[in-house]
Every structure is written in structure tokens, then in C-alpha cells.
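lol forgot to send this yesterday, sorry. C-alpha cells for the thing we talked abt
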């Protein structure tokens, strides 16, 4: 029995090491990605570019906030952890993790709305979709914190060092319900959006095609990597399988794996030639707009020595209040 416990702890510690490496990789790779998005932001001006940027930024914050929790787990060897210490180091992670999951869910709803409410979406819904997603994500994040903190006392010594072991008694049920809710919405909206874009999307816009491919890949990996542990947690809650008792230690590993994959999704989805094409197109469009404004009737100025355009033999039209008409001699 002693050997079984020690081997189990060794396996869990290995998962924590992998998770910590993933957190460092998340911060580094997503920081590079955020910088690249800032430089080549022309292809994200349409569709749901703000959602994509916010998810990358929250991924960086999620990696940073998860590091203290991983350090505590590794230092205690996954046994005999003070509950109050686990709670303090887990709060930022709980906040950022829920914010990211809700942002993915809101982006899937935004994409489904763009296909169902095409004209209404681009006229009305698109303007406040991102702002509403930030509000909804913030509300659910603070709800997570409240349910995580509600308990009788904080002075326990826990047998295991998972963040979920330090949660309040009502957090498990809330976490289960809200994850099933987010997974159901995001997966159904993703399937609808994937089918609709494959069957009906016809556009010559390079930036639109890049964004569509990028969002499809991001949502697809999110549904997969978020759905697997969520389904396993559901099975554990219903059937109480023994081999799923320590599943909470693997959730962070799946989350950081998703962050690292996000970097490679961007690399394989976005082509440099297409980015240059988008940049050249936006530059030409801006130049044409400037030239049109310069040639518009309201911005034209006529010099004193300028000659009339067209046929010079045509009679010149004189306005009713012009000085030329006032100086005319009346006909005899």
C-alpha cells in the first residue's frame, strides 16, 4: 500500500512538472504571438479579431497565475498541504481560467450569430459583442471566486495538493454545472459555424478567410481539450470511478497544452504571403481613399490662372450673386 501511494504521488508530481513547463511555454509563446498580432493586426480588424486578441492575452495571464500554484504543489510533493496556502495561490488561477473558458464560449456564440444574423450582426451586434463578452467573463470569474472561497474554516491540512482539493464544498457542483454549460454552448456553436463556413462561405477577402480559418482551428482545439476532462469529470461525478479521483491534477495540463497548441495553430494557419497581401491591400485602399478625398468637389481649390476644363467655347454659367453678373451692362 505504501508503494502504491508513493508511485501515485510520483506520477502526479510528473504531471505537475509537465504543467509547470507548459506554463512557462505559454507565457513565452503567447507573448511572441501577441507581439505578432500587434504588428500584423490588419487581418484581425474584421470579424472577431478582438476576441482572438483577448484570448491570447488571457492565456498569458493564465500561465503567470498558475505558476505559484505549481510551485507549491511541487514543493510539498502533493501531500500534507496547508489549505489556506493553496487557496491563496489558487485564486488568480481560478479567476483567469474561468475568464478564458468564458471568452472561448462567447467567441463561439459570436461566430454563430455572424452566420445566423448576417446583416443585423454587422450593423448592430458586432459593435457590442466583444464588450458584452468581457462583462459576462468577468461576472462568471467572480462567481467562481465566491464559490471557491465559501467554507467553514481554512485551517485544514489536506492529504493532496490539488487546487480543487482546497475548494469549498459547493464549488465542485458549481464547477461541474458551469463547465457542462460552457461545453454545450461552445461545441454546438462550433459545429454550426464549421458547417456553415464550409458549405456557404464565399468571399474574396483574404483577411476574412484568414480569420475564419484561425477561429475554426482555435475553437476546434478548445472543444477537444476542454471537452475531454469535462466529460471525464462528468463520468466521475455520476459513477465515482476510482481511477478518475485525481483528475483535477490533469486539468491544468490540458489547459497549458491548449495554450502551447494555440501558438502552432497561428503558425500553420497564417501564411506570410497572405499577410503581405493583406497589408498591401490595406495600404492601397488607404491611398485610394486619400486621393478620393483630395479630388472631392468640397476639397477642390481653383487658382486664379487656372483654365476651365473641357471645351473652352462653351458658355460659362454665372451664379446669380456672382460679381461677374453684377458688373454686366444691361442690354439696350
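and heres what i got for the seq, position by position
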Amino acid at each position: 500500500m505504501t508503494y502504491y501511494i508513493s508511485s501515485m504521488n510520483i506520477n502526479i508530481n510528473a504531471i505537475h512538472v509537465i504543467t509547470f513547463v507548459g506554463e512557462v511555454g505559454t507565457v513565452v509563446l503567447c507573448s511572441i504571438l501577441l507581439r505578432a498580432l500587434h504588428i500584423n493586426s490588419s487581418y484581425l480588424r474584421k470579424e472577431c479579431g478582438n476576441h482572438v486578441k483577448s484570448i491570447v492575452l488571457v492565456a498569458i495571464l493564465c500561465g503567470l497565475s498558475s505558476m505559484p500554484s505549481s510551485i507549491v504543489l511541487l514543493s510539498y510533493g502533493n501531500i500534507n498541504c496547508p489549505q489556506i496556502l493553496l487557496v491563496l495561490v489558487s485564486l488568480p488561477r481560478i479567476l483567469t481560467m474561468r475568464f478564458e473558458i468564458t471568452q472561448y464560449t462567447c467567441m463561439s456564440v459570436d461566430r454563430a450569430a455572424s452566420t445566423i444574423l448576417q446583416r443585423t450582426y454587422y450593423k448592430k451586434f458586432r459593435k457590442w459583442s466583444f464588450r458584452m463578452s468581457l462583462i459576462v467573463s468577468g461576472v462568471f470569474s467572480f462567481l467562481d471566486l465566491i464559490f471557491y472561497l465559501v467554507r467553514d474554516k481554512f485551517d485544514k491540512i489536506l492529504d493532496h495538493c490539488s487546487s480543487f482539493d482546497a475548494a469549498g464544498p459547493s464549488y465542485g457542483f458549481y464547477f461541474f454545472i458551469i463547465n457542462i454549460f460552457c461545453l454545450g454552448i461552445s461545441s454546438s456553436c462550433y459545429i454550426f459555424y464549421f458547417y456553415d463556413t464550409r458549405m456557404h462561405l464565399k468571399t474574396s477577402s483574404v483577411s476574412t478567410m484568414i480569420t475564419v480559418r484561425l477561429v475554426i482551428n482555435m475553437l476546434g482545439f478548445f472543444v477537444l481539450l476542454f471537452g475531454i476532462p469535462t466529460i471525464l469529470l462528468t463520468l466521475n461525478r455520476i459513477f465515482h470511478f476510482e481511477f478518475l479521483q485525481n483528475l483535477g491534477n490533469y486539468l491544468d495540463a490540458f489547459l497549458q497544452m491548449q495554450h502551447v497548441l494555440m501558438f502552432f495553430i497561428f503558425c500553420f494557419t497564417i501564411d506570410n504571403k497572405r499577410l503581405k497581401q493583406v497589408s498591401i491591400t490595406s495600404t492601397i485602399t488607404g491611398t485610394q481613399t486619400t486621393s478620393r478625398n483630395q479630388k472631392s468637389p468640397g476639397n477642390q481649390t481653383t487658382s486664379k490662372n487656372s483654365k476651365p476644363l473641357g471645351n473652352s467655347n462653351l458658355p460659362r454659367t454665372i451664379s446669380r450673386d456672382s460679381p461677374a453678373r453684377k458688373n454686366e451692362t444691361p442690354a439696350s
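The first helix runs from residue 2 to 39. anyway ping me if u want another try
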